[in-house]
Amino acid sequence: MRKSQPKKIPLAPDPKFNDKLVTRFVNNLMWEGKKSGAYIIFYDALEKVAKQTGENGYDVWKKALSNITPGVEVRSRRIGGATFQIPSEVRADRKVSLSIKWMIKYSRERNGRSMADKLANEIVAASKGEGAAFKKKEDTHRMAEANKAFAHFRI
Question: What is the mean pLDDT of residues 105-115?
């Protein structure tokens, strides 16, 4: 077992918006180490969002991410032979990570021509409180609410 946690490597902010969150998003979007391709997809998606909504694409993306960020989740815990789903608060770092991963996952599952189109549509839907990523957050919250009776098992 490791003695201490490894140090977090600081992220470089992205070139266009100078935001580390964008870099984190692009790192999750990237496939096979093709970061420049991931940046192209992301920036194209934001342009398409701006065209669709008439607002700043970056602001809409930020709003969409905050809309799909979960507050609570359920964790499985085995107690006396039975497995309980115990609701627990989500750590700040994990909140962002989950919302980014959900947005990218459900964008990939959408049907559209290019990844930029799919991502743009998912961003617009999430900013309005719709779409698969928003539904995932709602389901997660609903599951935590349903299992509130087991909250006293929390570690």
Answer: 91
CA distance linking residue 90 with residue 138, whole number of Å: 14
Q: Which two tokens stand for residue 86?
A: 């115990």
CA distance 42 to 129: 20
pLDDT tens, residue by residue, 123-151: 999 999 999 999 999 999 999 888 888 77
Give me the domains of the chain, ranges plus CATH numbers: 20-153 (1.10.455.10)
CA 21 to chain centre: 11
Given a cut of 90, is residue 85 above it in pLDDT? no
Helix (H), strand (E) at residue 72: strand 72-79
